[in-house]
Write a structure and sequence with these properties.
Layout (H helix, E strand, L loop, with lengths): L3 E5 L4 H13 L2 E6 L6 H4 L8 E5 L12 E4 L6 H6 L1 H8 L1 H13 L2 E7 L26 H21 L3 E6 L2 E2 L10 H10 L4 E4 L5 E3 L1 E2 H13 L7 E3 L4 E3 H12 L5 E4 L14 H7 L7 H15 L3
Parallel strand pairs: 1-2, 1-4, 2-3, 4-5, 5-6, 6-11, 7-10, 8-13
Antiparallel strand pairs: 9-12
Helix pairs in contact: 4-5, 4-6, 5-6, 7-9, 7-11, 9-11
Bound molecules: nicotinamide-adenine-dinucleotide and uridine-5'-diphosphate.
Uridine-5'-diphosphate binds next to helix 7 and strand 8.
Length: 312
Amino acid sequence: MTKTILVTGGAGFLGSNLCERLVNRGDEVICLDNFFTGRKQNISHLLDCHNFELIRQDIVRPMHLEVDQIYNLACAASPPAYQFNPIKTIKTSTVGVVNVLGLAKRCHARVLQASTSEVYGDPEVHPQKETYWGNVNPIGPRSCYDEGKRVAESLCVNYHQEHKLEVRIVRIFNTYGIRMDPGDGRVISNFINQALRNEPITVYGDGSQTRSFCYVDDLLDGMISMMEQSETIGPVNIGNPVEYSMKELATKIVEIIGSKSKITYMDLPKDDPKQRCPDITLAKSVLNWEPKIDLETGLNKTIEYYRELMNL
Ligand code: NAD
Ligand code: UDP
């Protein structure tokens, strides 16, 4: 049966890719966004679809809709964006999430909360399993995002326990791909855009810190499977377990593009996690999911997208 699905943050990077998938699947899709980091061009190709609707709204204000499922993706994800107005970031993941859960309670809708590997902070356990409680600085520059997302998880679990609300929590690790805002300051968008312009590649610190990168299509497979299954409310890690240092990443991107860019080293931002890599044993067993797209393939698709955007 066709479902009505609300995607908050639907004009952002992940949200717009998700809306497209759900529209193509035949669901009735409502995209709700305040356009803080989202872009109209991400969803402009969907506006004429009979099963797609766009609402400009902030989740910090109550929503009055009738829906069957909610993917709660609203929240800026790049560090410069979420640190631009930290109090707003906290409100989005607290007041906003209460509004989303309240809407779900009234409609008896199932909610998927887009949580993050940032709940593990600068982890002392490697790779990170869902059972690890994390190492977050509660008063550092990343805390507005990290602690907000931790409260959001707590709200989901408590609505589930108190009101039997159907919740699903995914902890998303660094994801990249088409429709990432080229100016959002995240590492893959920065490096590719610098390399395409033959500008210096800005590696922060000595570049030995690691991340593991999941291509958006893989992420969506995992996220949708999580929404559809009934075995667990989570949290479940979704990410690619292949780990790279930022120096390796810079070198790889320069090589693939054949760029003349050279690496330049800049100050490491405060509280930047040194290592990050998901343990995806749980996702493999519960969702029968693991990523299929390797970094080189995903980077090629992303580079192609940015080339078109820049008319190169
Ligand atoms: P994004 O910044 O591209 O998208 C976020 C969207 O939410 C934007 O369209 C923005 O305008 C909207 N938004 C922000 N605050 C809002 C509010 N108060 N009300 C309504 N809309 C609001 O980021 P993304 O990478 O697409 O991330 C989507 C979600 O996934 C976020 O919740 C993020 O925390 C989570 N996540 C993403 C990653 C990643 O690597 N991409 C990793 C971990 C978690
Ligand atoms: N980073 C970098 N150069 C950049 C942007 C980011 O070296 O131009 C580093 C950053 O310090 C971090 C990693 O890349 O160690 C990933 O940063 P991003 O902002 O993409 O995500 P997050 O830190 O939230 O994982």
